[in-house]
Structures are given as structure tokens and as C-alpha cells.
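seq/struct pair 1
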Amino acid sequence: MGQDPEKDSARGLAQMEGYLLWNAEVVEARRRARRFTDELPWLTTGQRDEVERVYVADRAAASRAMLVRVSARATELRGEYSERYRRLRARCVAAAVVAGTTGGACIAWTYLTG
């Protein structure tokens, strides 16, 4: 456990959510495998079990590969958006400084010439 209970809780909840989502994916793959083999009534029990096992393994591998791609892209986007936010914030601060300096100069000019 870390030093921050809130972060630990958030990490634990994210892990639980990931587990539940993955479990739901496996259950769905098994359901689809069963539906697929139901269309092949001539299979023996052993053949049916093997086809279902291969189907579930293939679907799990495809799902895992997709999750890796999505995760990599999310990390990439997080970096891009963080950089854009940093640049936007710097421009806003610069604009505020310029506006403040300009406004101050106008006020000073008004007092000096008035």
C-alpha cells in the first residue's frame, strides 16, 4: 500500500473494474462459442469442447490485443493533450500579463497626463 489512501482506493477500484470487465468479456466469449457449436450438431462432446476452447482463446487474444492498442493510444493522447494544455496555459498567462501591463500603463498615462 502507498502513502495516499485515496489513490490506493482509486487504484483498487480500477483493478476491480478491470477484472469485472475482463470476466464479462470471457463470459460473452463462452456464450458465443456455445452458440457457434450449437449450429454444429454433428460434433462429438469432445469436439464441441475443443471448438469452444479454441473459440474462447481466440476471442480472448483478440480482445487483449485490442485493449493493448486502446491503452497505448490513450496514453499517447494523454501526453498530447497535456502538452496542448501546458501551451494554452502559458499563452493565457502571457496574455494576462500583457493585458495587465497594458492596462497599468494606460492608467499611469492617464494620471500623468491628466
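seq/struct pair 2
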Amino acid sequence: MTLSSIYADFGAHEASGVSPAYERLASAVSRDDELLALLGRLPLAKRQPNLLFGVVRLLGGPVEDPGAFRDHVLANWPAIEAEIRVRATQTNEAGRCAVLLPVLAALPQPLALLEVGASAGLCLYPDRYAYRYGDLVLGAGEPVLECAVTGVTPPDRLPEVVWRAGLDLNPLDVTDAADVAWLDALIWPEHTHRRVRLRVAAAVAAADPPLLVRGDLVDDLPALAARAPAGATLVVFHTSVLYQVPAPRRQAFADVVRGLPGHWIANEAPEVLPYDALPEPTGGALHNVLALDGTPLAWTRSHGQAIDWFG
């Protein structure tokens, strides 16, 4: 896949109908030889649209108008490039807990949660958030995570979590303003509700910070999993993380996690973890596949806003 087609595909599928600003930017970048040449000098993992757009936002650049964006990037490329090289896309969307909840609530309780690619660990608090599935409201307080559900009855209880830990190459600290600013910059421009949700979820996590360990998802997972308390169901999970991991390493991770006690929940794009057969998703928007122990169960939207159960 060429760099041009990566940006064109991002605009046409990921950003379409979700972020008009990023749809415009991605389309413009895909046709801009000068910008593509600059991006082409970066390591492969650093060329992705979300990373470029997030860094420009973090540094105060314009992302609404493609022309102004282009001028800003060309004029400030050394600073932008330096930031891109030390950053990674670590979107920590608490809303994804809404699509994990039907699986988490159905597992033997209590749970010991271990998130791979945890970022700041906001998805480690599914028991502390409130949810709205259509007319059903579950839990109390803020944030309230809204999710459209088809094909399955929403859960009627919150999970009981007795241990929570995260593994990440670069854990972020919700009590650090600079780390929260990066999480904010990764939220797409029009998504004011997600920005508000980030702040509220970060306050929940900061009141009882999770155990976050800097480490590799293959080499360091068994040791962290061994720290889970006896008598709790270990649940290793990840959402929109493995696309950043080379394919051979993904397979090594899958082999390791299958060898652990407990359960494995994956919520990733369909090409990231291949499954034998999947029904067609409804609509043209980008979807992830929610799977339990390697069995696909549902299509989900990337920020947790919808779940379409087929399992």
C-alpha cells in the first residue's frame, strides 16, 4: 500500500462521516507530493495520519483548512518531525468500555483486568463508568458512555474488578498535564464530547491510579499476568492496538496470551487478527471485530459508539 493510498483510505473510510476536518486533510495529503516526500523519510510506523494530525494539533497548528495545514507543516517541519519521532498514537478512548462490557459482565466474577497497549489505562475502569444502551442506563455518575446495540441484550450489571494493570511501551500518566495534553491532541477536532469524556475519565483514573508497567506485549506479558490475584478471572484485553505491531509479533503475542489462564478479549480491525469467516458489517464505516478467546462475536465502532452482535 503506497503512502498516498494510506492517506486516501484513511479519509475515505476512517474519517468519512466521523471527522470532516480529517477527511479533508487526509484527502489533500494523499495528493500532495511535497508532504508525501517529507512523510516518506520517516520510519514506516511514524507515517500514519493520526500521528501527523495529532502532533500538529499538539503544537497548535491548524487542522481545519488543508491549505493552512499544508503551509504550517512545510514551515514548521523540523519541529513537527522531531515530535513525530518521539510520539506514538496512544488514543485512550474510555468509550470503548461500552463494547467490552457485554463480554466482561458475562465472565466469571470477580475480574483481574490486564490491558495490553494501555496508554494511560482509562479502559481499565469499566466498573467505574456509567453506560447508556438505548433506554437502558447502567451504573451511576460520570462519564456516561453511550452505545447503540443490535443483536444482543445489553448487560444488566457492571463487572466486579478486583485488580487492574496495564502494559505499554510508553505508559502515560493521567496525573501529568503534558501526558493528558497528548491524549487530548489525539482526539479528532470535532469530537468535543470525547474531549469532555477524556477529562472526566482521567479524573476517575487519577483518583485510583492503575498499575501501569513499561514493557513489551510478548516478552513482559506473562510476568505481569502472574501478578493477578488468585481467585479472580484474568482477562487480557486490547482495543485498536495491534495494528501498530508487526504481523509476526502479533502472532507471537497471540501464542503467549492463549497460553495464559483466564480469557482474551480482542477488539481490533479485521485485517489485524484474521478470522475464518466474518459477516459483512452494516454501513460503510470502519469497524473493529470484538472477539473472545479467538472467536469473533461482534462488529464494533472504533470509539465504542456502537456494537452489532453476530456471535
